[in-house]
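[AMINO ACID CHAIN]
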Amino acid sequence: MRDGVRLATDVYLPDGWDRGPTVLVRLPYGKRDRYTFMPQCAPWFNDRGYAFVVQDVRGKGESEGSTDHIVHEVPDGYDTLEWIVRSGWSNGAVGMFGDSYYAYTQWAALASGHEALRAIVPRMSSLRIPTDEDQDAEAQQTGTGASGPNPARDDGIGRPPSAAWARYLAGYWLDNDEHMPPMELSDPPMAAFEEFFTRIGKRSSAFDSVFPRAVSRFPFPDGHPVQHRAVPTLHVLGWFDPVAKAGMETYLKLTAHPAWAPLQHLSADATDHENYQLSDAPARDGNDHGTDDEALARLLPRYLGPALDFFDVYLAGTASPDTLPRVRWTLGHVGDFDGDQWPPREAVQAELFLDGLEQSREDVGLLTPHPPTQASVGRWNHDPRKPVPDIGDSLAILETWPDESDTGRRQDVLAFDGPVAEHAVDIVGPVELELTVASSRPSMDVFVKLFDVEPDGTARRLLSDQITVSRVNESAVTTSMELGHIAYRLQPGHRLRMHVASSESPTFLHDPGVDGNRWLTQTSSVSRQQLLTSPDRPSRLVYMQLPHPTS
């Protein structure tokens, strides 16, 4: 790099290689680790006529330098591209590929302005696209890079603090290795992390920049990537990935951008953040790509295929643009479909209204197509000492795809069941919940999960969202929650179910029910929560579906 720091880099060249196009991956998770399976990916790129370069980012893996989350990726991206161009085995055309943080490094390299970068394939990621109203500093923040996997909304509605994000920054961005931060948080929660740093003997600058109070960081010192040259982009999303909601927003905003719109493509699969497939869920012995080599070999064509086809058009120039669909999406339990936009043109809006809010613990509320004819209120208590557990790993939910039906029987969870499907229902597009809430406290967290309930009662998660609503003790507040986008077939005999709660542990830091910074609060109090509906302010689930099941 320009400051003399050396970044560990593996170069895979096809047999008999002279020079040609290159695909670059810059990642923090170990360039030869089984988790990233880059050595297994290399032959696929080489066989298609690409040099394949994989690099440990600064301060991670085998690379030198300080471990600083997002800080160095723009200049290091530029210097790596320059190194490739000057290598003698490159023709000067470079594409980039990768998931999550190594999707962020693609946007950072693009923001560096290097002309060699011709096409990118950011997977399982998002990028905040600035609007005319954004302040310069705010516009430079990015979902997966700076703000975490659950970036704040633009309408003043907040987000519950992510304890999972705190653990990631504390344990992974400490040094070149990975450490295990605390899962159980004490009062105050910061104390557990302070004990962790004391035990390790060092601190994470990334953690300290966010917790207990966020400090503005500017990952793009040379300007937001969108302000630079537009390049062909293949956005790859997974319906069961909690990052997909923000990733879809990135794609949709870029398709509305005059310079970027003609170059945008979307590939949306029925997978989660860790690439577990719905078709294999839950992963069993023999089909877990995380541990089984044969399962990984079966995954690779689906993992790499869209990117290889994309690079053939925009990097190598060996295929025509008309061979690529603008949008390829997977309908869960059915298969793949091509189109020219998302959601599909033929999708129509549907809605289910919340009813029976004053439910007993022996019964559940309803999701009904009929609007409410009278006002009703659902009540529950949020006790921060007894938070609602988050079942399963949200980033790898399909690995276990657990039954979460027991959660709906808790006293602090409201559950609502939709009608049993008489025929297949294809849900395609965004899913939103409009709701009215109130609390005994000035603010309240609202956690919502949507499930597919099988005939035997098993409830498997489809989508979720979390918000923090302010001023709810003054009067009831009507707001909305964006659960995300999905393409999923609800099978005959199945039904939708929704859970509403005020905590999700250990993924999110619980609301202590008292004033002050949650990370520093030592006391807690029970909050009395309400969910309301009425003819003039109905709480309802709004989604899109195909008018007829797709074969």
About this structure: Confidence is low (pLDDT under 50) at residues 133-147.
